[in-house]
Amino acid sequence: MSFEDEVLKIIKESTKKSGGIVQSELWKILGIDSREGSKLVARLMRKGLLTRETVMYKGKKTYILRYADSTKIPLSISVSLNPVVEIPCFTCRQISRCSIGGYYDPTRCTLLTKYLISYSKPVIR
């Protein structure tokens, strides 16, 4: 059993019993200094195995460590590019000559105006 596994076992048991362990108490149990302990905790947090919450303990600010359940729900994100593809500028033959103040001006373009109006929401007062 590695040192990290040993630490995780202690934190997991304390999370079940009392909702977590104050990191200074963990340092005492392990016989390590706060610098070494902080590095270890940071490593375990990057792996998603621990959570850390700020608390007041014996009048001082410290952290309580909790075991993070490793069964996380996979996240699925769906992005639709349909609204972007419908922007009239992408199919306009004059896009290379279009500029504010020029002959082809996006502030006076009827196609772009119609597109923007179709996506605008009415203001409710």
Mind explaining what this structure looks like?
With 125 residues, the protein is of the alpha+beta class. The protein has five helices and three strands; from the N terminus they run H-E-H-H-E-E-H-H. The protein has helices spanning 3-18, 23-30, 34-46, 82-85, 110-119, and strands at 21-22, 50-57, 60-67. The chain has a three-stranded antiparallel beta sheet. A hairpin with a 2-residue loop joins strand 2 and strand 3. The longest helix is centred in the first third of the chain and has 16 residues, at 3-18.
CATH topology value of the largest domain: Arc Repressor Mutant, subunit A
CATH class of the largest domain: Mainly Alpha
What integer value in Å does the Rg equal?
28 Å
Spatial strand order of the main sheet: 1-3-2
Number of helices: 5
What's the CATH architecture of the largest domain?
Answer: Orthogonal Bundle
Query: What portion of residues is helical?
Result: 40-55%
Helix and strand run: HEHHEEHH
Q: Would you spell out the secondary-structure blueprint of this structure?
A:
Blueprint: H1 3-18, E1 21-22, H2 23-30, H3 34-46, E2 50-57, E3 60-67, H4 82-85, H5 110-119
Antiparallel strand pairs: 1-3, 2-3
